[in-house]
């Protein structure tokens, strides 16, 4: 028995040829770890590696669909035409053969002596379709595999591993004798901490090759594509619920601010009454102490001088109250430190009762903005049904019979289907069945609707002829297939399939879809969101709530595959988001005297300058998972949502409608996508590639003086000019005009003076690192080399940094391995970011004239775990940047410094922020 009798029946892609040419080198450490986008041919590459190693193997896949796909690829692409499937392939870990293909869950179940109903393994609904688990007879899995001499493990999308599945896989790998491990993934868990990454790399090995989406588009292995967003407003009922919560919350906070007993309780707290005697306790929870000071200060009660000294700020520098600070305050008063307020127990009971009434308490935690209920209202808003219909109508007009649209949702919601023609009512949930039903009711011309899930399959009756032909072509026994009319619409049929043929249904419906019997297919992300292969898909609507790095990337992969039958294919990918444009903090302005919002100009990373709800924030997180081409010239390819050009949006009803119309207009320009990608792929270097950068909006001097103050001056002058313009029509004479111009200048000066003075004073008191960011990079790099986390020779490494006109500074490391680059960028993000809770701090002091300046920089966690590494970093810092003091923050003195770092830091005042960016350059 041997794999070498097989041979690949098609042509290799360039990256596949490169990996295979270097296979022996990659396997020197018994690991091959490939990162490549969905649709890049990882499955075929894995099969060829197995064939060349030519030893018994086990393939582990995250879902049944992907498990079956491995077997289908082997039989269709590696066997001669007409050859039957070999009998040495097994899908049962308890009965392994030369090639055993199973799911991770099946492996875990075997180690746990359990049996699972694999037909229901990929759950698609909240309360149904859950795997049935029963106890099974004990079996020694490793002994069975050893009998087969298994020496190859293929881990497909190992990022999926849950903790218990991970343990089973580690046990399997340890039980075999130095197996060769082949790890294939589109989405490595880059967002885990360093220890988790080490665990992942120990299992999968270091990354040997990383193939990006732009590289594959450039080579013609993926099609040109673009992401669009359609924003929806909550329905009338949903808006009423949101409004009621905010109204109740604002009313509660107004009453709280006027509750003399509550204010007396805060003022009488030992930390406030006798701050000096409770420094140690305060340093253990500086956030709670700060929240008391901020709350009292916002109501006009000046904080004690000693309290300000601990925080390291002046009274004028205490930030305004906002919902997050109020959550910290109330959580501490009502739960964490409730014993300190025993004298005011009756008041706290009333406060707690009111918070429960308005729904702002979740598991002993106060949530004034994004409660679980609020998030659910936005995520599952049925306003998205209207968005889906609008998109479908536009795409159908543009593509006609060529439309191949897929809508992916999280849940089936079969109960939302009417039971008959007399049962057609409003749709109250988002899911597969409601989406199908809404589109059915819209009766969009030319659209042929279908549904494909594990338990609900619907075909248009006109597609039955194509379905029958597909069944015959695939030599399927149709005796186990039956149809029944849809109860409320005889133009559709439900498909019922039993027995072993059930595993074929996904393939059969996919073939009907490819053939045009269905042009708009609605399904679940659990079944179709990963591993499903339908190259004809040219429009994808993500109606899923998923915001995770991995699944969002996988779902996009369904649409961006090339279609051999349509070489000019392009794909539109639509994301949905429900926006909440009524802001709670605006309501709080009427309650608290101090300004709540900081100037938005100081946060250039945020392309959406307003809190419009958790659904949009999840969308922004989703966009960090993949790269795409920008909407506007000069065309660039990068990750994140900035390329969507949302920065100028006015988040009003009219603004949202205008934005949607703009998105639809852009999406119609499919013919321009190839040209747009071609321009973006030129890059800025002779051999462009995806490069990771860490960016910091550290408010450098140039930004402060040439952007911020210029902005303030222009704002003042424009406002003054508008005021003057209203009265100039009645002014006569040069002298009178000159007087009015002087008045206008005076008005402008008065308007900008407070903020300009604050900025100037902060600049004098603090300094900035941007001019030294390359030196900071060398301090980090040499320390990581000292720790042997970066082993690439220094002569092969180069640190690049640049600053854009908005003051955002970018830094990257060239020449390192992907893992080394990731570690470097993570450390740079920490040292340039806000001081959270590092073990060590670097305090950097300087003077400008007679004014002392100070700034604080966290020692990255990967470095600060050991004192000797932190000390080495401090020495490198002193060499490259200048003198600084290394402070251990776990001591009382160190905790005080950490507290002051959080409140006094120049960067903190300017909303210091770092971000990880991927750019094609």
Gyration radius over CA? 31 Å
- Specify the helix fraction band: 40-55%
Could you tell me the CATH topology label of the largest domain. Answer: Rossmann fold
CATH domain class name of the largest domain: Alpha Beta
Spatial gap, N to C terminus? 48 Å
> How many domains make up the coordinates?
5
Structural class: alpha/beta
Strand order of the largest sheet: 10-20-19-13-18-14-15-17-16
Low confidence ranges: 119-123, 125-134, 594-604, 698-713, 761-768, 905-911
Explain what the structure shows:
There is one protein chain. By secondary structure, the chain is an alpha/beta fold. It has five domains: 3-211, P-loop containing nucleotide triphosphate hydrolases (Rossmann fold, 3-Layer(aba) Sandwich); 225-235 and 381-447 and 519-682, Rossmann fold (3-Layer(aba) Sandwich); 237-377, no CATH class; 701-765; 770-920, no CATH class. The chain has 36 helices and 29 strands. The strands form seven sheets. A nine-stranded mixed β-sheet has the order 10-20-19-13-18-14-15-17-16, with helices on both faces. Strands 3-4-2-7-8-1-9 form a seven-stranded parallel β-sheet. Strand 24 and strand 25 form a beta hairpin. The longest helix has 32 residues, at 734-765.
